[in-house]
Amino acid sequence: MITRSKAETILKQVFGLEHFYDEQWNTIERLLRGERMLLIERTGFGKSLCYQFPAILFDGVTIIFSPLIALMRDQTNALKAKGIAARYINSEQAPEENTQAIADALEGNIKILYIAPERQENQEWIEATRKMKLSMIVIDEAHTISVWGHDFRPAFRRIINLVNLLPKDMPVLATTATATLRVQQDIEQQIGGNLQTIRGNLLRDNFHLYVVETQSEEEKMIGLAHWLKRLPGTGLIYVGTRIQTEQYARWLQQNEIDCIGYNAGLDGEQRKEIEQGLMENRWKCIISTNALGMGIDKPDIRFVIHTQIPASPIHYYQEIGRAGRDEKPTVAILFYNSSKDANGVQEDYKLPKVFIESARPTTNTYLKVISLLQEEPLGLYDLMRKTNLKQTPLMVIKADLIEQDIIKEVIYNGCKKYEYQFGANPLDTTIFEEVRSAKLKDLDSMVYYVFTQKPRMKYLCDFLGDTELNFHKNCDNTDLVKRKVKVSEKDKELIKSFWDNYFPELVVESSKSNLINGVAGAYYGISHIGTCIHRCKYEQGGDFPDSLLKMTLQAFRKRYGNKQFDLILYVPPTLSGDLVKNFAHKISVVLKIPISDQLKKTRETDAQKVFQNSILKKDNVAGAFCLTEPELIIGKSILLIDDIYDSGATIKEIGKMLSKAGAIEIAPLVIAKTIGGDDLEKRKD
Questions:
Q1: What is the reported pTM?
Q2: Residue 285 in contact with residue 252, Cβ under 8 Å?
Q3: Which string of DSSP letters, residue by residue, matches 194-255?
């Protein structure tokens, strides 16, 4: 065993730090003795040092399971800069890079290997772990192995299978900043092996906590415009949906606040660029879903503002904990729209409730998947086609059925499929209902946080099981002045002007066609526009009214300006008769651009809205369009018009066909863009 004095000499040489905290050294000392540990410490405590330091002393490779790609990337780069051999394996890298990381671990060329838990399904990884010289297993964000955790991930449960195969004297460390007593006990039971738990103090006394009650989304927007310029430093603004990342970013930019939107719908390179910009303070703030922040080690984030209530006090504590790690004063503001709908439900309660209730599909959906797999083994895409389900719910079903030993993964001709286990026990949905009930109770606790008169930090710490400290005077219930949004006539004019000139972008550009990104007049689901379109299409309401024409033309001019187009084409109908044709002809008259009726269908298609997943939407329109006189579009710039943009599959299919026929540019213009399930984002990666 190494002494603390000798260890701190190495700590200074390798990590540039003078001393361990007592709880850090207590954890490290136990790991060096081959014990199993659960470490529950607040964000910014230095949990990563508790596994990085012993890893460099061990003879072998330390495997760190983490769901956070940004953390893997940043910590690996930081370790390499210190001369410590480290690699990572995740979906961000090319397969060749992941294979090389495994080879390096097998050859003993690295000390620390980070891996995403989902990669355990990879056969190459399964074979490698049997030959690898393991020295320690680390489960980072360990709350994810518990169904009672705030971010449960079924793939994490498989780590326990590996842990159970390890020698009892091989060290195992599980770390998290957010575990209730129920989650703590679940983790302890799963890891087993006389696991010891260290639970630290969760108090963040450098935080200034505020709750701002509003009566509309516009009040939140106005409050941000008023306060952001006066808040010191840079920070994060969390919103509820992907669409809102775009909306809030544009609003704040209009108010001369330097910002950018971020969500999991961006490609990997865009996300990395914004994450790097966060580290370099390029913007006053980043507007994001909860996709941003986990695993990013930036000590000087000065404020975190939520425009949407999180699903639980655990989520909230974790998300505000991404700021103020340097212990300097930090502001956390939570907006809450307490206005009620016709049923008496508070507006900001609805979205997290939808997330909770849709987290698992219906029992009948599970039974449908089981029935299909009883007939034959199927892969994920086969299941998507046969069930008309999106990938996310199918992944949930797959994980649950594997967990209950109802199905298992098999390899058929090199392809992964799922096979029913005949003789398996019936599906047990009891745990699903228990988890749902527990999460709804947590949501109610988060609402209680909004209205409580208790010190806010004490409320959060009590909820998380840290009931030791009683001094929490750092919120608007104690010694801080409450914040309220004051809306002036000028504010009202600015908001109206913003919405009158806000037009959703249609992101369709790709290397497969000459499509350019287009524009919609509005979002279908957040205005009267959807009602108006529905009336015309399905209730014999006649042609689309001039108000929609005016709005769409405004969107055209905002997006394309004085750009010249040679020809207008429109998407041929499935159910709506001549609605789009008549609308396109009116646009042709106003813009004085020639129009052609030559874009036709080669076969009947179904309405895209009946399909839930992108695979079936693509199948529905694949090869379904043609031109009666293709020579007319050669070398032409085309304005392509439709009424509703959903997945974009129709526009993209037509764009590919027109590109092959010789069109040099195709620009989509639609009346409205739908708010799809992808916009209601929960997952981080």
A1: 0.85
A2: yes
A3: S-EEEE-----TTEEEEEEEESSHHHHHHHHHHHTTTS-S-EEEE-SSHHHHHHHHHHHHHT
